Amino acid sequence: MLAYLVKRVFQAIAVMFAISLIGFAIQDNLGDPLRALVGVSVSEEVRDQLRDELGLNDGFVTQYLRFLGNALHGDLGTSYFFKEPALDVILKKMPATLELVLGATLIIVGLSVPLGVYTAIKPKSILSGIIMGLSIVGISIPVFLTAILMIFVFAVNLGWFPSYGRGEVVHVFGSWDTNFASFDGLMHVLLPSVALASIMLPLFVRLIRAEMMEVLQSEYVKFAKAKGLRPMRIYFVHALKNTLLPVITVGGVQIGTMVAYTILTETVFQWPGMGFMFLEAVNRVDTPLIVAYLIVVGFIFVVTNTIVDLIYGLVNPTVNLARMGA
Amino acid sequence: MSLLSVRDLTVKFAMRDQTVTALNQISFDVRRGERLGIVGESGAGKSITGFALMNLLSQPGYIDSGHVMFGGEDIVRFSDAQMRRIRGNRMAMIFQDPMVTLNPVLTIGQQMVETLRAHRKLSRAEAEQISILKLREVYIPSPEERLEQYPHELSGGMRQRIVIAIALLLDPELIIADEPTTALDVTIQADIMDLLLELCQSNKVGLILITHDLGVVSQMTERTLVMYAGRIIEAGPTRQIINDPQHPYTQGLINALPQQTLPGHRLKQIPGNMPSPAALPAGCPFHPRCDFAVDICRRVRPEIMRFAEVEIACHEVSRLHGIPYKEESA
């Protein structure tokens, strides 16, 4: 187990190194930060002086090594716009994003399993046809469009939900305010969560359905029937457990992807999270903040994937984590 | 009275463009404690017979007509709930490949206990006690530890013993074993067959042994059915069928055994392949491969007829017994 963990940590470091290199390499192509920083009324001499002070005139390798050295001390640079450490800016915005992802995850986990199992057990029923049809629609419509449509219908026309912002939040600790502790907060988080889940949910329903249908054809399911077990036990004990093994692996990766999708959802709903912040940073050519965001998101990816692999090892008895370190 | 009495059982498969008859009006009996072998080539309908008896045909297969009388009741007419009470309880099944029969994510103990508790009101501890006893009966060493293990931790032979133990858990009246040793090493095959024979004899359990191995049939069973293209073509006491086969197909099967050929000589074989049930030839389905086929064999399907202890569906055999060819089609 420990050997496996150590191996995974080394893999994670290698991935983070690659992400930092890529993230840092693209920053030169994003435009001139000085223009965003000082405007047009400042003379070229002052600009050059500023460039020198910021270290922008140094070679790429020098800049990158300086960045890497600082990063190892937890310093991902200082945001040009906020004049604050980039990491602090991101960490302040992170709880809002994670709550949005949590809301979407709850919707996905809560609905995909029953819907996926139902459509697998009763593939020919009318309800299954409707579910599968809607899932195609869900996958096909881009998140930002779903979000705008939902605002139009549920916020503007029907007036059931607020259209933007986090609403009333309850302070938990540090920079973490939660939406999940008040009615107003819940109402605010619902539409963005549904929008964020709109692509992943159909994907998971289809994935679970396909896996489940395959498992239901297996010999051990036939044997379970031959033993005289009740259908519910066959579906939910024998089949579902085997169905979820591959779903967990795919699902873990998708949680990471969802963090990336928040950029669109947060922008449409003016949700004060990392994704919204990232888009603003791009507009302001706030390169340290952009690079820091890429690194933080990469880190979230790596961490969730590692956790998912560990969970997979715990759920699947044929995977022996203790031996996998070798 | 027979334990199991199958009458005119017909199984069809509803394919996209046609309905294929996979089992055509087969009839046979199994007495209490009797061991019956079903032999034939792949695709003859042996396994389908086994699954049809359990009412476990997978889509698109279904029982079209006929009766399966089990303990005096026609279980073809049973509801799902009624059938569930029979499966695993009074009628159990042993599958072909033990590597895929047991659920990989459940322990042996869970898979045994759930079977017992599906049919009897037992506490978990009681069910575990019975499971341990049954594992001991199939000669599994240290059965208490096995209950905690997962299938992948055990060898193929061990797993098949566990499958047999599960089949025996509720002391069934009939066990259907569908090629129970085909997927196992040759050295283990004999062990498993010996075990199955011993358990059936000591517990007075009826056995339907589905196999393509005539050697196994002669050693294990009292009566044998030979199937070809979804029909029974010869049935009778195993000894008689092995020693004195009447139907040209059965003769071909026996002659194809390696023991029937001198070392260094080519093995004898039946020319051609068994026809697909979707494209059966007219007349006797075996006639394209039969050395004795005459005109009538190409036109009229032979009915199964009883000659002393053996039943045979063959025009030529009927003629040899002094029954003239019947022109009307069966």
Automatic annotation (TrEMBL), chain A:
<dbReference type="GO" id="GO:0005886">
    <property type="term" value="C:plasma membrane"/>
</dbReference>
<dbReference type="InterPro" id="IPR000515">
    <property type="entry name" value="MetI-like"/>
</dbReference>
<keyword id="KW-0472">Membrane</keyword>
<feature type="transmembrane region" description="Helical">
    <location>
        <begin position="185"/>
        <end position="205"/>
    </location>
</feature>
<dbReference type="GO" id="GO:0055085">
    <property type="term" value="P:transmembrane transport"/>
</dbReference>
<feature type="transmembrane region" description="Helical">
    <location>
        <begin position="290"/>
        <end position="315"/>
    </location>
</feature>
<dbReference type="Pfam" id="PF00528">
    <property type="entry name" value="BPD_transp_1"/>
</dbReference>
<feature type="transmembrane region" description="Helical">
    <location>
        <begin position="133"/>
        <end position="156"/>
    </location>
</feature>
<keyword id="KW-0813">Transport</keyword>
<dbReference type="InterPro" id="IPR045621">
    <property type="entry name" value="BPD_transp_1_N"/>
</dbReference>
<protein>
    <submittedName>
        <fullName>ABC transporter permease</fullName>
    </submittedName>
</protein>
<comment type="similarity">
    <text>Belongs to the binding-protein-dependent transport system permease family.</text>
</comment>
<feature type="transmembrane region" description="Helical">
    <location>
        <begin position="100"/>
        <end position="121"/>
    </location>
</feature>
<feature type="transmembrane region" description="Helical">
    <location>
        <begin position="243"/>
        <end position="264"/>
    </location>
</feature>
<feature type="domain" description="ABC transmembrane type-1">
    <location>
        <begin position="94"/>
        <end position="312"/>
    </location>
</feature>
<dbReference type="InterPro" id="IPR035906">
    <property type="entry name" value="MetI-like_sf"/>
</dbReference>
<keyword id="KW-1133">Transmembrane helix</keyword>
<keyword id="KW-0812">Transmembrane</keyword>
<dbReference type="Pfam" id="PF19300">
    <property type="entry name" value="BPD_transp_1_N"/>
</dbReference>
<feature type="transmembrane region" description="Helical">
    <location>
        <begin position="9"/>
        <end position="26"/>
    </location>
</feature>
<keyword id="KW-1003">Cell membrane</keyword>
TrEMBL record, chain B:
<comment type="similarity">
    <text>Belongs to the ABC transporter superfamily.</text>
</comment>
<protein>
    <submittedName>
        <fullName>ABC transporter ATP-binding protein</fullName>
    </submittedName>
</protein>
<keyword id="KW-0472">Membrane</keyword>
<keyword id="KW-0547">Nucleotide-binding</keyword>
<keyword id="KW-0813">Transport</keyword>
<dbReference type="GO" id="GO:0005886">
    <property type="term" value="C:plasma membrane"/>
</dbReference>
<dbReference type="GO" id="GO:0015833">
    <property type="term" value="P:peptide transport"/>
</dbReference>
<keyword id="KW-1003">Cell membrane</keyword>
<dbReference type="InterPro" id="IPR017871">
    <property type="entry name" value="ABC_transporter-like_CS"/>
</dbReference>
<dbReference type="InterPro" id="IPR003439">
    <property type="entry name" value="ABC_transporter-like_ATP-bd"/>
</dbReference>
<dbReference type="GO" id="GO:0016887">
    <property type="term" value="F:ATP hydrolysis activity"/>
</dbReference>
<dbReference type="InterPro" id="IPR003593">
    <property type="entry name" value="AAA+_ATPase"/>
</dbReference>
<dbReference type="InterPro" id="IPR027417">
    <property type="entry name" value="P-loop_NTPase"/>
</dbReference>
<keyword id="KW-0067">ATP-binding</keyword>
<dbReference type="Pfam" id="PF00005">
    <property type="entry name" value="ABC_tran"/>
</dbReference>
<feature type="domain" description="ABC transporter">
    <location>
        <begin position="6"/>
        <end position="254"/>
    </location>
</feature>
<dbReference type="GO" id="GO:0005524">
    <property type="term" value="F:ATP binding"/>
</dbReference>
<dbReference type="Pfam" id="PF08352">
    <property type="entry name" value="oligo_HPY"/>
</dbReference>
<dbReference type="InterPro" id="IPR013563">
    <property type="entry name" value="Oligopep_ABC_C"/>
</dbReference>
<dbReference type="GO" id="GO:0055085">
    <property type="term" value="P:transmembrane transport"/>
</dbReference>
<dbReference type="InterPro" id="IPR050388">
    <property type="entry name" value="ABC_Ni/Peptide_Import"/>
</dbReference>
